[in-house]
Amino acid sequence: MESGGPEARLGSGLPGLDTMLDGGFNRGRVILVLGEPGIGKTIICSQYLFYGAAKGEGSMFIGMNEPKSRFMKEMLALGMDFAKLEGEGKFKYIDATDVRKIPEQTRIGRIAVGGRELGLVNLLETIQDEIAKFEPVRIAVDSMSDLVFRFPSVEDRRPVVLDLIETLQSSSATSLLTSELLSTGEERVLQPEEYLAEGVLLMRTLRKGIRTIQILKMRGSRVDTHPRPYNIGAKGLEVLATEEVY
Ligand SMILES: Nc1ncnc2c1ncn2[C@@H]1O[C@H](COP(=O)(O)OP(=O)(O)O)[C@@H](O)[C@H]1O
Ligand SMILES: [Mg+2]
User: Fold this and answer.
1) What is the pLDDT of residue 7?
2) Residue 2's pLDDT is what?
3) Ligand with smallest separation from the Cα of 43
4) Which ranges of the chain have pLDDT less than 70?
């Protein structure tokens, strides 16, 4: 599946998506996976990591949405035994669910400081430390929305997203970053992370309830930009790369 030389492309773990991507993700990039809740963002991240880890590539999941136990259990039901890969030292789960519990304000000694900013700095430092220790080839951060919900305005949100993306870019890994789609339809509002990420995959339900994935942007690649349908079954998510959606 990997064209352009093994150095250039990294298989996504989803054969149909690799077809759309012309071989896989460009190495070292940060790719945004944007979509409605329940659409399959976490599953895409898991397949991406599982596929790599099973081949011996260190893979790291930074989970802000669910504790490790729940993640492991849900992915096992889809045929992905992450516990085994963890035991082999190829997979690491970073539990970052604390970001959702950060108080609006906190104190250092007697001084009140912004809790959300402090929480963010701590998280970025943790991510940096864990990357330095584990040196992953693949990273997934799921979901950015759990981090930025305390920064509701676009002006406040932009630097937070930028810091997170720069942290991921400073490693040599190829990263997926998920985010919840805030608006749908033709005249939906573009989210700052769409400008800042180097690639964007959009997942959404079209008329008649058909779930589709579309490559909105992929810097440095010639890709299929049509929305393509996909199914989620016992073996995970399968993209039907040659099917049209009307
Ligand atoms: N074992 C399964 N069989 C079929 N579909 C499943 C299974 N597990 C999850 N799903 C589907 O996957 C969806 C959730 O995917 P997930 O990646 O958690 O979504 P997101 O992260 O975008 O919120 C559910 O809405 C369900 O349709
Ligand atoms: Mg999810």
Assistant:
1) 47
2) 45
3) 1
4) 1-7
Between CA 57 and CA 33 the distance in angstroms is 21
Write out pLDDT tens, residues 118-172. Answer: 888 889 999 999 999 999 999 999 999 988 888 888 899 999 999 999 999 999 9
- Confirm whether 2 is domain-assigned: no
Distance from residue 110's CA to the centre of ligand 2 (Å) = 38
Q: Can you read off the two tokens belonging to residue 166? A: 């720069």
Which atom of ligand 1 lies at the shortest distance from residue 40's CA? Answer: 17
- Amino acid found at 219: R
Domain that holds residue 201: 9-239
Pinpoint the alpha helices (H) of 7-153: 15-20, 41-54, 68-76, 82-87, 115-134, 145-148
Q: Ligand 1: which atom is nearest the Cα of residue 65? A: 21
Q: Which residues surround ligand 1 with Cβ inside 6 Å?
A: 35, 37-43, 77-78, 232-234
244 within domain boundaries? no
Residue owning the nearest CA to atom 11 of ligand 1: 232
Q: How many separate domains does the chain show?
A: 1
126: domain CATH number is 3.40.50.300
Cα 78 to ligand 1 centre (Å): 9
The three-point CA angle 204-205-210 to 5° equals 130
Answer yes or no: is 190 within a domain.
yes
In a domain, 245, yes or no: no
Provide the residues around ligand 2 (an ion) whose CB is within 5 A.
42
